[in-house]
Amino acid sequence: MTGLITLPAASLPSNLVGHVFGRLTVTEQLGRTSRGQRYRARCLCGSVWEGYGYKLKEGSVASCGCLRRERCAALGRSRAKLEDTEEARDVAAVDSIREGDEFGRLTAERCLGGKSPSTTVWLCRCKCPDHNLVDVLAPNLAYHTTRSCGCLALDRLRRRAVRAAYQFEHAIAAFNERSTKRHARLQAVLDGAPYERVQMRFLREKRRRKLRDVQEENG
Ligand SMILES: [Zn+2]
Ligand SMILES: [Zn+2]
Question: Which ligand minimizes its atom distance to the CA of 133?
Answer without folding.
Answer: 2
